[in-house]
Amino acid sequence: MAPAERRWRSALAATTTLPDQVTTSSPAETEAAGETLGKRLRVGDVVLLTGELGAGKTTFVRGVTRGAGSSAPVASPTFQLVRVYPGHVQLAHVDLYRIENVSELADLGLEELAGEGAVVVEWGDRLQVPGSALIEIEHLGGDRRLIRTNRDLSH
Ligand SMILES: Nc1ncnc2c1ncn2[C@@H]1O[C@H](COP(=O)(O)OP(=O)(O)OP(=O)(O)O)[C@@H](O)[C@H]1O
Ligand SMILES: [Mg+2]
């Protein structure tokens, strides 16, 4: 493993309380799933989120942030790539939607953020992070969403 990768803890432990897949029927239920994860996050955990526009990624992060111990309101980091929330573990909320090139990714300081706390990344399938967990949110129509957890990212 390259030295740069060593700061990343496998997010495996944090995701064990999430079922492989769960269907939610409201934003509150998606937040609750996120909160369960947030409670378990530790320094170095990196969670990648994927799902189409409006799938519920930010809604999920709202719960993760609460679970991580922050009562701050969570908005989409539309014009900022990263927002950092202090809690029992610091949580960095990253949104890669507007990222245009690889050099911006390098500027993110992901390693430093993972050194200080946990990191949750919207449009995270644009990144390859060894040991991370990938959570996919799928729009099932109406208010229903399917949340799938993939804990076995070996890339
Ligand atoms: N079961 C559900 N889970 C999550 N969000 C839901 C659910 N039902 C309805 N919604 C609504 O869907 C929208 C999801 O928006 P949200 O900003 O969380 O999505 P997103 O994936 O972050 O979008 P973007 O790609 O623009 O960042 C919100 O308006 C939310 O209230
Ligand atoms: Mg979002």
Task: Tag the structure with descriptive keywords.
globular; 25% helix; alpha/beta; Rossmann fold; binds adenosine-5'-triphosphate; 155 residues; binds magnesium ion
Task: Describe the overall structure.
The chain has 155 residues and is an alpha/beta fold. 25% of the residues lie in helices and 25% in strands. The chain is built from 4 helices and 7 strands. It has helices at residues 27-40, 57-67, 102-107, 110-116, and strands at 21-24, 46-50, 82-85, 91-95, 118-122, 133-141, 144-150. Strand 6 (133-141) and strand 7 (144-150) form a beta hairpin. The chain is globular, with a radius of gyration of 14 Å. The structure holds adenosine-5'-triphosphate and magnesium ion (MG).
Task: Please outline what is shown here.
By secondary structure, the protein is of the alpha/beta class.
